Amino acid sequence: MLSNTNLAGYATFSFDYFLNGGFIACTCPDCKSEINLPIQIYHSGTLLEKLADQYSMHLIDELVERNIVHLKDEDSRVHYGLEKYILWNMDARYEVIPCKACSNEFLAVFGMAELQPGREEVQFKGIWKLNS
Ligand SMILES: [Zn+2]
C-alpha cells in the first residue's frame, strides 16, 4: 500500500535541472529526516514492470487505479515502442528510497525521455511512503 499523501508533489523538469545537480527533496513524515532523490538522466529508475517482482503486483495496480501511471494503449502510434506502464508518452520508472534514520521506505515514480527533438523532459509524479 502507498500512503495517500504525495510527499514531493508532481512536477516536470528539463534534463538540465538534474544535469546541473538538481534533486528532488522531501521529508520523512515520521522522523523528519530529509529524503533526497537525485535523478541521473537515462540511468535512474527501474521500469515499473519490475516493481511486481520487488514488491507486489498490487502496488502497480494501485498506481494505475490512482492515475499515477497509465497502461500503454497498444493501438496508439504515439505509444509505439513504449513499455506496458507509461506516464505521458514515456515509460514509467520507479525507485525505492530507504529513510536514512528510520525503517520507512518510499516509492518515487518518474520518467524521462526526449518527447520531440529538443524537448527533453523528466516527468516526476511523486514520492509516497510504502506501508506494509
Ligand atoms: Zn524516517
**Pattern of helices and strands:** EHEEEHHEEEEE
Shape: globular
* Annotation, overall tally of beta strands: 9
Low-confidence stretches: none
The helix-and-strand class reads mainly beta
* Biggest β-sheet description: 5 strands, antiparallel
Q: Tell me the helix content.
A: 10-25%
Provide mean pLDDT, rounded: 96
Q: Please give the count of helices.
A: 3
Query: Mind telling me the C-alpha Rg?
Result: 15 Å
List the helices and strands and how they pair.
Blueprint: E1 11-14, H1 15-19, E2 23-27, E3 34-38, E4 46-47, H2 51-54, H3 57-65, E5 70-71, E6 85-86, E7 93-98, E8 105-116, E9 119-129
Antiparallel strand pairs: 1-9, 2-3, 4-7, 5-6, 7-8, 8-9
Residues 28, 30-31, 33, 99, 101-102, 104 line the site of zinc ion.
